[in-house]
Amino acid sequence: MAVRDVPEAVFTRGIGWIPNVIREDGELKLMLGAGADANHDPRTFTFPIGEAHLAVIRTDLARHLLLWSAVLPLCDDAGTRGPLDEDAAVALLDPILLAPPADVDSFFRHTRWDRSRLVAHGADTGLLGRGRILAAMRSATETSDGKRAQEDRADRRRAERGVVLGPLDAAVLRFTGQYAHGASVPKRLPGAVDAALLPRVMRVIATVEQACAGMRIGLDPRRGRRATDKSDWDRMAAAVDAAVRRAHPGLADDAVRTVGFLMCSEAAQRSRNTPVADDEDPADTRDAPGGSAEKTALTFTDDKGAERKWRRGAGPRGATSEFWEFVAERSAGDNEVFTIEDEERGEGIQLHFYADSVARVTTVRPGRGGADPEYRVEYALVDGIRGYRQVVGTFVRGGCAALGGHGPWMSDVAEFEAARRHRRTH
Q: Is the pLDDT of residue 283 over 50?
């Protein structure tokens, strides 16, 4: 069996992933790493080159990088296990490495190439956009700046939407860390902003801070332990939007959105990091009928048969925070009905998260002599998690009698369904 020679390194720039030239079995080859196999390990590809090609690769960084950018799409075509199309790769050599500059530009107008790779290595993006490919590479460097390529991709996506950023818009997006990645969690990064623009950026931030002073974004345990109240989020975002457009009318929509996202994200994080206080959003029931009927023992249940008992003084949590913890643990798309029952007083409330409604249930006549108890069931509409918190807090402190102000309460099911339909359509 013939023994293959160990590949000999002929030329390498020694930086990053720029392709190297090797000699294998007496033949010159370009070797590059690109893509990944099924195990996510990098793939290595090679294809033959000539001595004339090696001479250019040694002396001309720009053409070396251009060749790399044109080969990368062929590597992508190979996927996780396919072979490189060597004929197509070899066909790139002469037009890129040996042709006159004008012909190189013409060739790149009709072939696939990886723009991000060139931008990361310092290509002039304006010249690239005008099709002057070789001239754009005069500023190329061996070192790579991935952030530069990310920002270029972001600019091109904005251009597709017809968005052109001004200097202040760009500075605001850099301040929040969202220039390149609009979906990332925003931060405060003053060091990322040009010193000359930072005072203007801080005036924008001062505007939004004043606009949402005193506002908060509560948690929504219906969607888990760390989920936040969407209505609170929307309310804060709208306040920021209005204030910024009034005080800084020239800002682009992208910049306005990013400062709103920043304020909302910070408010939501404060809520997640703050211990839940009992009765955090109570309705005042001191003067309500039944307002003194504060609960001492309650039973919480869900639609899946789970049950939790609460008794005053038996643990560190009050009734409302214990109930919402129960909801956060158990709530799901197929588990949206939760009940709080005071067995001693014969009353309770049932929360219907799927319908934005609540029922209060009171015992009219207890069961005696084998007869079933008689209950009064009344329904009311609820306005989001804030409304649910108010109902729960009021019930815990005052029982069903204290809930009168959270109506109107309807005992007729048909009347209640009509009210639900009316709210959905209006």
A: no
